[in-house]
TrEMBL record:
GO terms for cellular component: endoplasmic reticulum; Golgi apparatus. The keyword tRNA-binding does not apply. Residues 450-460 have a biased composition (Acidic residues). InterPro entries: Rab3GAP1 (IPR045700), Rab3GAP1_C (IPR045698), Rab3GAP1_conserved (IPR026147). Residues 438-449 have a biased composition (Polar residues). Residues 762-866 form the Rab3GAP catalytic subunit C-terminal domain. Belongs to the Rab3-GAP catalytic subunit family. Residues 493-645 form the Rab3GAP catalytic subunit conserved domain. Residues 461-478, 725-734 have a biased composition (Basic and acidic residues). Keywords: Cytoplasm, Endoplasmic reticulum, Golgi apparatus, GTPase activation. It holds the Pfam family Rab3-GAP_cat_C. The lineage of its organism: Eukaryota, Metazoa, Ecdysozoa, Arthropoda, Chelicerata. It is found in: Cytoplasm; Endoplasmic reticulum; Golgi apparatus, cis-Golgi network. This is Rab3 GTPase-activating protein catalytic subunit.
Length: 867
């Protein structure tokens, strides 16, 4: 009760705040039982409590709850050490005139302590706290403007397609509470009466600020993502008529083909009829959906998705650097390093990399759906996108912003599908270039129009048997392509890439050559699942096992045939030495004599009966890679990808793109994380881990994911709101103490600035804002005379100007602090009770006045030994 450290705790039980105690017991009736509604019943219970405390020698104060718990009305007692402290309370809904000032409270406190008017009373120590409130802000205090719907519907220029909307539509700060405190004042050094008061906020030695936040402010990112998630639940499919859009280009090409033939034909030629030509769709397609987007918006969006830019690779890094100020980077290097690590961790999410084709497609699709609110708009965009992808395949254009190589299984399925299509385009381009080169070479040699070097062509099975015999009836080996192969003894190596070091064929001195082999077959994760499921369904019977081995050894057979073609007369041991060196046991040679003690041989597993490698080697024929049947049919796989894309409905499209949008949102949150509290970094680390786990599952819980993103967004917009309020206020100059504008200098709180010391106003403001975000109550350095205090004073003065709507307000130039919304007084003294012979004991009375609410809480101690 005497310690000043227990005064006005930021977060504590109301009994702690009113009596300054830390440990206590509260006895309250069961909610189903009758409440303690009368004072007599409360005194009876308190008497029983005092008896129990005395018998148990419990030193803790005990309280009896009266009326409803929301009324916060308790009576209590504490017995121990030869003293008894009684805790009394008064709560009324109006302020008595005699208790409205400090002088009246001091008089009441002394009257309660004294037992005789002839005894001199000790001096009273007083702690005072006034609370001021701001809940109305100046127009510049919140930067987020509502979107202009009319402008947005006209074009995409009013919205950045590369960003998700971010921020709060309403101020996340509900109110700011400023508490000014005068701690431990003697009663004779301050006057507070009906006539005069010395309690001015600017004279208080201690200021503290508490924030009241809006519980659930409406945020743009949360609304944006929530709206797109709803599309995932719509049970709609792509309109069949929309698929016919792909045939428009074919119809146009067919018309051009007719014009060319007409110009080539002579004048007397009969008209050519194209009725027998196959047609996949009518030339004029009737689309039941109207042109929702419009050509201008559609072309702008398609340009954003497909047109490559040299700055794309720097887009993600630049956005992150723009979100960090120069000064905080120098001051808090560890935090920024952690943010960079978290940004790198985002690359491990099963989505796509920033700036990729799928990344831009997700942002564009979500924007289209958010603006038009119709799944038909997404369908129209998707049809146009797939049509462009089909055009890229037909004309050998690589899809932009996709990493080369086989599909990356660490990315989302849509990204893998587009990578697969790029693989098909690349294989197709290589095949066509090689075929063109072969044709040119053949024409240069013999003028022939055909070439034997056709790569990976298919041969019907019915022609193979006919070609097995020549004119003399002699049988020859055939390649998988149906060509007659010469005998190995009559040929030299073919399809050689390079020599394999100094290795030679076993039993000969011929060098061992590495053959040119077919590239591995790229596969997406759904193809791998289908392949694994097909292998499982073959069963465990001998026929199934043989077929399974044949399916798994297709690539091995191709490599063996290429090896045999490059190394005529080679054996399985030669192949194993190159292909799987661990399965070859090298020869043992005596180091002294140099004699071979043990010849090199295959590993035991390679010598087992029925070994697959031996069986495949026996069936393999010497066929170079360019004459083999293709392991990877790029045309077939490309058509599969295109069919997969056009078969997706709006819900499937949204389900494929939603994980990418979550990744975009996380990247944007990390860009702005420096505007939030320091603890947000650890929170984001937990959020990223949890979301990464969710996105790797079959059915991510987007409701939980969006809640995590919303919490991070709210934390950031709170920091932005605080910074905006302090940044928009002119910072004070300590040398300006005269008349005129006391805020002559305008210096930004954020952004790039020059080097400043830790005691500079900018650093103090920045540190104060961080304290407000992290702590329930933040102390103001320098109170009202410091730079932070002067900015706060200006906020309150401007708020009072806004609240004053009287006609006389225009002529008022000297605005001061408003009337406090709450006044708190703590009166302390040491006084001998109940008699002058008693030992001096601590006496305390707490008073709070808020509006018409008045509460007194007294703790008066009696000496039980000397009375």
């Amino acid at each position: 009760m005497v310690t000043l450290g227990n005064d006005f705790p930021p977060r504590a039980h109301y009994l702690v705040r009113w009596y300054g105690i830390r440990d206590f017991l509260v006895i309250s009736p069961n909610p189903d039982d009758q409440i303690v509604g009368t004072e007599d019943r409360a005194k009876l219970l308190l008497s029983s409590v005092c008896l129990a405390l005395s018998n148990s020698k419990c030193p803790l104060p005990a309280f009896v709850q009266m009326h409803h718990p929301q009324e916060k009305l308790c009576f209590g007692a504490c017995i121990g050490g030869g003293f008894t402290t009684y805790f009394d309370m008064v709560h009324i809904v109006h302020i008595p005139p005699v208790c409205g000032t400090l002088s009246g409270l001091i008089s009441l406190f002394k009257t309660k302590m004294s037992y005789s008017s002839q005894v001199a009373l000790p001096p009273v120590d007083i702690t005072i706290r006034f609370t001021y409130l701001i809940n109305e802000w100046a127009p510049y205090a919140w930067p987020q403007l509502p979107p202009d719907i009319t402008e947005e519907l006209e074009s995409t220029e009013s919205f950045d397609l590369g960003k998700i909307p971010f921020g709060a539509l309403e101020d996340p700060i509900s109110e700011v509470q400023l508490s000014v405190t005068w701690p431990s004042l003697p009663e004779d050094v301050i006057i507070d009466s009906d006539v005069h008061s010395d309690l001015r906020p600017t004279s208080a030695p201690k200021w503290s600020v508490r924030m009241r936040w809006n519980d659930s402010p409406q945020c743009l990112m949360e609304d944006y993502l929530q709206h797109f998630v709803q599309l995932c639940d719509k049970k709609t499919t792509l309109n069949p008529a929309s698929k016919n859009v792909f045939t428009e280009d074919e119809a146009s090409a067919r018309a051009n083909f007719r014009d060319v033939l007409d110009r080539m034909a002579p004048q007397t030629a009969l008209p050519v009829s194209f009725g027998a030509l196959p047609r996949s769709a009518p030339e004029k397609v009737h689309d039941p959906h109207p042109n929702i987007l419009g050509n201008e918006v559609l072309m702008e969006t398609m340009g954003y998705i497909f047109l490559s830019s040299d700055d794309d690779q720097f887009e993600d890094k630049a956005s992150f650097d723009d979100g960090m100020d120069v000064e905080p980077r120098l001051e808090n290097m560890s935090t920024n390093t952690k943010l960079l690590e978290l940004k790198e961790n985002l690359c491990t999410m099963k989505t796509t990399h920033p700036g990729s084709l799928v990344w831009k497609l997700a942002l564009a699709s979500s924007y289209i759906y958010h603006k038009w609110g119709d799944s038909g708009a997404v369908e129209q965009l998707w049809v146009k996108v797939v049509s462009e992808i089909r055009h890229s395949w037909d004309n050998n254009y690589m899809l932009p912003r996709l990493e080369p190589g086989a599909p990356n299984l660490a990315t989302c399925l849509l990204h893998q599908k587009l990578q697969m299509l790029n693989c098909c385009i690349e294989r197709k381009m290589k095949r066509e270039r090689r075929q063109k080169a072969v044709n040119v070479s053949a024409q240069a040699k013999s003028g022939s129009s055909e070439s034997d070097e056709d790569e990976f062509y298919e041969c019907p099975d019915e022609f193979r048997d006919e070609a097995k015999k020549d004119s003399t009836g002699t049988k020859h080996d055939l390649s998988p392509a149906g060509e007659v192969l010469p005998k190995p003894s009559e040929t030299v190596g073919e399809g050689i890439l390079r020599q394999c070091g100094n290795m030679t064929l076993l039993g000969t001195l011929k060098p061992l050559y590495i053959p040119v082999t077919q590239e591995p077959v790229p596969m997406t994760e759904d193809m791998l699942e289908e392949h694994a499921e097909a292998l499982v369904q073959l069963g465990s019977n001998p026929e199934g096992a043989a077929l399974r081995a044949r399916m798994q050894s297709a690539c091995l057979l191709s490599d063996m045939e290429a090896f045999k073609a490059a190394n005529p007369g080679a054996c399985l041991g030669d192949f194993v030495r190159w292909y799987s060196p661990r399965d070859w046991i090298a020869a043992v040679i005596d180091e002294v004599t140099g004699e071979t003690q043990q010849e090199g041989h295959l590993s035991p597993r390679m010598q087992l009966p029925g070994n697959t490698w031996q069986e495949v080697w026996d069936t393999a024929r010497p066929v170079p890679a360019h004459r083999q049947k293709r392991l990877f049919d790029d045309t077939k796989e490309a058509e599969k990808v295109l069919h997969y894309l056009i078969s997706m409905g709006p819900a499937s499209i949204a389900s494929q793109l939603m994980p990418v949008l979550v990744h975009c949102a996380l990247a944007q949150i990390l860009d702005k994380a420096n505007n939030g509290p320091p603890s947000l970094v650890a929170t984001l680390e937990h959020i990223i881990t949890k979301i990464s786990t969710q996105l790797r599952g079959k059915a991510p819980k987007y409701k939980e994911i969006l809640r995590l993103l919303y919490d991070a967004e709210v934390a950031i917009v709170r920091g932005e709101s605080l910074r905006q309020k302090f940044d928009s206020m002119p910072h004070t100059d300590e040398s300006s103490t005269g008349t005129g504008d006391p805020y002559p200098k305008q210096q930004p709180l954020t952004g790039k600035r020059r080097h400043s010391s830790e005691n500079s106003p900018e650093c103090q403001l920045r540190s104060f804002v961080l304290d407000l975000l992290e702590k329930p109550e933040a102390d103001v350095p320098g109170a009202g005379k410091g730079p932070v205090g002067k900015v706060i004073s200006k906020l309150f003065v401007d708020s009072q100007k806004i609240a004053d709507t009287t006609p006389e307000a225009e002529h008022v130039s000297d605005y001061r602090f408003p009337v406090p919304v709450g006044r708190e007084y703590i009166l302390r003294a040491r006084y001998a009770r109940p008699t002058p012979a008693s030992r001096p004991t601590p006496q305390r009375m707490y008073c709070v006045m808020a509006g018409n609410d008045f509460r007194l809480a007294g703790a008066f101690t009696n000496d039980l030994v000397f009375y």
